[in-house]
């Protein structure tokens, strides 16, 4: 059974912060394991002799740090770990597409998770100025927009929106919900655009309310943003992908030479 101390009434630190500190210590020490359930509100109230609001404030502090997640009707759980390791030098290797696997599938499976994609939408529109600039196309040229959400073991970890010049996607499964084995990049290569290189811009910020809803994260949990541009062997930009990742769910690894 989880062993927790008691509140020090002489401590200047508010009781809810003392409780949060004890629970945090239990998580970092491994006494509360990833995916494990925290003691119930009632159990914490009885143990510490505090009001329900005090316990809720303590749990909210842990939630805002991204340490725990709440599941309606089930309780509060330690956020699953380890994170998905995203190896930039390997994730777009052609051998994965040849095996019919897209990048996220490879990463999630290597990290021990079952991958899933949902909320897929596909449509056409005109690009905004930022996307047009990255794709090096006029702003009145039509593009295909693919939006989706990625889950690991049923938990949302990332949203992604791809922008592809319509001329490159036309007549391919890129314009369908199911892109087929290997995903977008496999279809682009099938259509004659052999991929040669990628650029990525990585940032960090707090999520918008809509992103919080889609990623099912609480207040105070940051996200990583990765904007990627893919180029073919003729140095033509064939896709821009704008991703938003739950920061605690990922480790971004980059391998590059010192030359």
UniProtKB/TrEMBL annotation:
InterPro entries: Bact_HTH_transcr_reg, Chorismate_lyase_/UTRA_dom_sf, Tscrpt_reg_HTH_GntR, UTRA, WH-like_DNA-bd_sf, WH_DNA-bd_sf
Gene3D superfamilies tied to this protein: Chorismate lyase-like (3.40.1410.10), Winged helix-like DNA-binding domain superfamily/Winged helix DNA-binding domain (1.10.10.10)
Domain of life assignment: Bacteria
Keyword DNA-binding assigned: yes
Gene Ontology MF annotations: DNA binding; DNA-binding transcription factor activity
Pfam families in the cross-refs: GntR (PF00392), UTRA (PF07702)
GO biological process terms, semicolon-separated: negative regulation of DNA-templated transcription
Domain HTH gntR-type: residue ranges: 13-81
Keyword line: DNA-binding, Transcription, Transcription regulation
Entry-linked PANTHER family: GNTR-FAMILY TRANSCRIPTIONAL REGULATOR (PTHR44846:SF17), MANNOSYL-D-GLYCERATE TRANSPORT/METABOLISM SYSTEM REPRESSOR MNGR-RELATED (PTHR44846)
Name of the featured protein: GntR family transcriptional regulator
Organism: Mycolicibacter arupensis
Native organism taxonomy: Bacteria, Bacillati, Actinomycetota, Actinomycetes, Mycobacteriales
